[in-house]
Amino acid sequence: MQSFPNSPHIVKGGIVLIDPDSSAIKRIITLQYNPDTLTRSLQVKGVGGDGGNRSEALRLTGPPVETIKLEAEIDATDQMEMGDTLTANVGIQPQLSVLETIVYPTSDHLIFNNSMSQSGSLEIVPMETDLTLFIWNKNRIIPVRIAEFSIIEEAFDTNLNPIRAKVTLNMRVLSVDDLDFAHKGGALFMSYQQNKEKLAGMFRGGNLGDLGINSI
Can you say how many angstroms the Cα of residue 215 is from the centroid of all Cα atoms in its chain? Predict the structure, then answer.
């Protein structure tokens, strides 16, 4: 089936995993459907917190702690109607598993750590994972850490393979306070912040008359 020639190209949101050292792309995970809403919160990092010195009230210690929450739907209906063999065998488990494994250390690393502990090694270095990027258009390429991940499986085939699910992702943005400026994630965060500043510069401000006053 051909799409209409004048149909607009719909940009999808998604997650990209890259090697933190080489920046090589390891995996691209495109959301099947863009969620209708994103919930974003920013926790301001002021000097001394709420109870800080009053003389420092206007000082910021760094970028705010930003969190992003989204709910994504995964549905195998179309693939089942087209007779997709993979979907018939395992449902949407590959789509769920590729998201789940982001927050798992690899089985190889777990086996290696166990081997090291059995041999009497005193220090086991935690695994460094791929750098996770949440991408929501070209102005929002954001280094994140998935802080919480939940799945509601809503329908199953006759073999109990899930065929429809809702996934909730809670992500914490990684800033230059978390990653060094020289780190790929730190550089991407700075681009993300600079894009915010450019977009803020496009804002057409009002005037004091709009607020019912003439001067301050």
Answer: 43
